[in-house]
Amino acid sequence: MIDPVALFLLLLSASTPILFAALGELVVERAGVLNLGVEGMMITGALAGFAAAYHTGNPFLGFAGAALAGALIALPFAVLTQFLLSNQVASGLALTLFGLGLAALFGKPMEGVKAPAMSPGPLGLNWIVWLGLLMVPAIWWFLNRSRAGLILRGVGENHDAAHALGYDVRRVRIAAIAFGGAMAGIGGAFISISTVLQWTEGMTAGAGWIALAIVVFSNWTAPGVLAGAWLFGGVTVLQLRLQAAGVRVPVQLLSMAPYLATIIVLVAISARQKFSRRAGGTAPGSLGQDFHALR
Amino acid sequence: MTDAAVFRARGIGKSYPGVRANDDVSFAVEPGEIHALLGENGAGKSTLVKMIYGLVRPDQGQMLLNGQPHQPADPRAARAAGVAMVFQHFSLFDALTVAENIALGMENPPPRRALSVRIAQVSQDFGLPLNPARRVATLSAGERQRVEIIRCLLQNPRLLIMDEPTSVLTPQEADLLFATLRKLADGGTAILYISHKLEEIRTHCDRATILRGGVVVDSCDPRDHSARTLAAMMVGGEMRPIDRSGRQSGEVLLQVRALSQAAPAAEGTALKGIALTLRAGEILGIGGVAGNGQDELLAALSGEIRSAAGTILLEGADLSRQGPEARRSAGLLAAPEDRLGHAAVPDFSLTDNTLLTAGARKGLVRRGLIDRPAARAYAEAVIRAFDVRTPGPGTAAKALSGGNLQKFVIGREVMQAPRVLVVNQPTWGVDAGAAAAVRQSLLDLARSGAGVIVISQDLDELLELSDRFCALNEGRLSDPRPTEGLTLDQIGLMLGGAHGMEVAHL
């Protein structure tokens, strides 16, 4: 039998990496930047976090290092897109490839070593899981209630108007990109430090892409991101249980299930939202567009 | 020396690569004054006000605000110094609410509830009704402008800059705006008003500074001058009066019957039972506030959107189910509003752009092959006949200024000798000289026996050109009225875009 409470706790863990990455990307996209490099930033965080945790023996320092590494690897993307006005889609894809390659190269010495153990938080859940859950209302409050969040949304909605009102579009966007990188880094490190407990090449396994999809279909809201992450996490846990129970379905199909389920549900939701551009807020108006001011 | 002026500019200069945008500009705005800044497109008005608002830094000269040096590093500094600005293209955020938009334009906005109360209060004081919780995307153009104005008013500005504020308003909305401005001026605020609408400046402004080519050419009381002399100062020479003579209306050319169409896009407007008749030698003007079906009507007439059989007839032949190419061959031509991207391909040369619409009628394409010399010759002919300022037919369309490209795209259609020509916003964003040339070419075309439909938001233009006028409102076309004797007030009522006016007049 499957215990629903235990299953839910597992779901929380399984959804944490995507939750972090998607919340970060949510802030980035609300600022009007489309960063397709989430996967690359996650894998960078996974390696850097693991290495930092291993060398210091402190997993919390590992997560701090992962956040720093994620933000740092996002900076070239920020410079390319905000100062040199490179195409955001191409630069983001390059960031993903760059991060995957870099992590594979520097990860060689980390292969086969074990992560230091981490003391669990309340309810026996990982502290980082709690942090992720806390980030959902925090980011919602930041975006919808704070002055800084209002400016960030303004920049993402209409960068020309924001500039005309005297807001520094570039600075807001660079800060958002760095934040997105840090969040993706923490998400990636959760996989290496807290889930798998070791480093393997390509271990993020497409979680960054799922995070990107969730942001779009969440209608660019924090609660929507949480729902999407839980959906993915839930199906992941369920299919692992089914595999363990020896259900006679090919393993490949079961492994595919979380991705498939997430995409199907999200497409169904977005089909309904398609015509609500006027009524409700959807894509930020300046998403993915270059900004250049004449002085 | 005591300086009563709220704002004074002394010898302001600003250069961009290849352009001297402002040169030695000096003028002063007194408290309580509505001061017009008058000039053609490219005369340097926008650059000048951007410097006052801190968006652009001057190369030379000095600005004084209330006698203090005024060198804002950015718009926030300018706002802190007491300068507020309402932009030509609204600087609003569609997805945000009215209150959020206003908060973004303030330095230290009060908490949300207090802000909503203040918005309600100011909007009542000035008779500008607004609901702070509405999303800007759902507002009309006039209401959007109210958001901008209230955003400015909440900061108690000393100097309020308005950049071509009435270009998107109905006459009633414009009157309401001027009433508001007068109230403000009476309270001591100085207002700098940018426009090229001469009549409006003559009736409402106390003083006018006229810019031409980046230089102040004159400063006068606009009430003492006729619109003609103001125009002459603006363009530097007499304006040739428009020649409307020699036209007779003949047989019916175009008939549109019960044309209804669903909106092509979520943001579009549906056409509802449009009916019109156009005779040879006649110009039919269609007015209306943007977004009431202008683009859709042009698309339906040009053939971009096909309509139900029997709705569009040219000289008796049913063209409703035909595409644009077939309609062009039959003699029904169109020039859409958006020059770059719709009327012309930005990266194509002018020669290539002529091929897009004139290929069949001018025989520039034969057996599927392009006759390059013929195409170039036709492009050169258009350039010559319409005085398009460009190095040659090989220049990319996007390299031309708005006015020159507009002359080219209109010329490209006119010189194909159409039976019926439909134009949308033929002089939008075009300076006075080019606008006069485009209008005259439409009148000449009608004189030669063609029918012309002019869709425009510029009512002066419609009154000047058209024989009959009808209004487009939410996809419905009113019955046509003879233009002669029609007053702006009557037109305003026809347009019906008087959102919230009853409340406002209380």
UniProtKB/TrEMBL annotation, chain A:
Its main location: membrane. The chain crosses the membrane at residues 31-53, 60-83, 89-106, 127-143, 174-197, 209-233, 253-271. It is found in: Cell membrane. This is ABC transporter permease. InterPro entries: ABC_transp_permease. Keywords: Cell membrane, Membrane, Transmembrane, Transmembrane helix. It comes from Paracoccus fontiphilus. It is a multi-pass membrane protein.
UniProtKB/TrEMBL annotation, chain B:
Keywords: ATP-binding, Nucleotide-binding. Residues 7-238, 254-499 form the ABC transporter domain. PANTHER family: CARBOHYDRATE TRANSPORT ATP-BINDING PROTEIN MG119-RELATED (PTHR43790), GUANOSINE IMPORT ATP-BINDING PROTEIN NUPO (PTHR43790:SF4). SUPFAM superfamilies: P-loop containing nucleoside triphosphate hydrolases. InterPro entries: AAA+_ATPase (IPR003593), ABC_carbohydrate_import_ATPase (IPR050107), ABC_transporter-like_ATP-bd (IPR003439), ABC_transporter-like_CS (IPR017871), P-loop_NTPase (IPR027417). This is ABC transporter ATP-binding protein. Gene3D superfamilies: P-loop containing nucleotide triphosphate hydrolases (3.40.50.300). It comes from the Bacteria. GO terms for molecular function: ATP binding.
